[in-house]
Every structure is written in C-alpha cells, then in structure tokens.
Amino acid sequence: MSTFIEQWQEWHANRERELADPYGWLAIVSLEWLSDVPATYPGAPGVWWQDEEAAYVDPRGAELSYEGEPITGVQRFELVNSGAGTRVSAGDVEVEVARRSGYLIRVHSPKAPVLCEFRGVPTYEPDPIWVVTGTFEPFPEPRPTTVGAVTPGLTHVYQAPGVVRFERDGVEHALTAFNGKTGKGLNILFTDATSGVTTYPANRSVLTDEPAADGTVTLDFNRALNLPCAFTDFATCPLPPDGNHLPFEVTAGELLPYERSES
C-alpha cells in the first residue's frame, strides 16, 4: 500500500510540474481563429491567415523564429486536423498554430494569470480499489470516430482501435478507446456520476499502457486527468464518444480545478 501511494504521489507531482510549464496549457492568454484575409491579432506579432490547406504568417518586420531559425518571409504550416500543433517564438511568448477543422493560433505567455496563480490540482485520495482490470477488444479496423468539443460547433475525428470492457458490481461497462498520445497505449475519454458535481463536467481522461497479448489492460482511475479545458477557456478539447458515460461515481483522480470551483 505504501508503494502504491508513493508511486501515485510521484505521478501527481510530475503532473503538476508539467502543468506549471511556462509555455504550457496554463500559459495561454488568447485564442484566435484565422480567416482567409491576412490580419493582425493581439499578442501575436506578424500577419496571419489561412487557406483550405495551411496557415501562414508574414513577420512584417517582427522578430519571429520557427524551429530555431528566423522567419524572414512567409512561413507556411500544413498540419493534421485534430493533431498536434506547432510553435512560433516571438520574444518572450510562443504562438501555437493548430488545426481544428480550420486553423487557429494561441498565444502562450509565462506571465499568464492562470499560470501565475496556479496552486496545483485537487484530487481524490488514491485508493487501490480504483485500479481496474479490463479487456481490450480491437475492432477489425480502426474506426474514424467523430466527437463533439467544448467549443460549440466544433468536432474532432479520432481513430478508435477498439473498446475496453470491465465489470463493476457485476455489471459490464464498455468504453471506446482512442490511441494514446505518444502512439502507445490507449486514451479513454469519459464522464461519470461525479461529472459536474465534484469533477469537471465535460470530460476526464484515463491513459493505459499497451494491452497484454491476451487483451488484458489496466485502468487506473486514480490517475484520471482533467483535460486542458478544465483549466482554461482557450482550449478546444474533445468530448467523450457516445456511450462513454459511467453511471456510477468514479471517486478517483483529479477533481474540479480550484479556479473553476471558486468561479
């Protein structure tokens, strides 16, 4: 038991350090959707626009750099929809470029109020009862799965390799899984009976290692994470797939952030 708690505490400390990154999610101070008309935006030096395939920036005299090299002319960014973004450095801020149906830019500043006032993430106490063994059942082929987003009118499309089934109190539950963010393991978005009460209402996420050869997979709900949208209004996080609601209280993992509960 002591080892279990120590490992969880180490995980939680690493999680809070990650959130305190001076250019991470808590550092976002603005979000702007690009149009096909070149325009300037507060906090983002240069002139920005998009077309159907890519986003563009023209420094127009601003000192911008990309991948360690100065941007001296129009820079093009063609990104995967709902995939990872990329960053442009501009003095002491970074401008993130991302594709969410259309292209957007987000300014990350180490002076962001949310970041400067960050006090950590409240959680339930770790409990081994919430370490659940399930079975991964792969689909014959990964299924493109469309989900909603916390941003009204926006959707995301992810590849779902299969479902994870597990039992609780004699009742079987099935959760659609997406691929893990690093290309390994699974990422499961879910809500439960605590959502909107003690935990963030829109979503939480539990990550797993690669399933074993027999399909066995461990869901550690003690490590259920808030997505970025729980901390900032400048995120476009996905909602869980249809059916990924658990009809019982998952009293484990991260709680509603202090900033949300106090507001």
UniProtKB/TrEMBL annotation:
Report what the protein is called.
Answer: DUF1684 domain-containing protein
Q: Which organism is it from?
A: Saccharopolyspora rhizosphaerae
Lineage, top-rank taxon, reads Bacteria
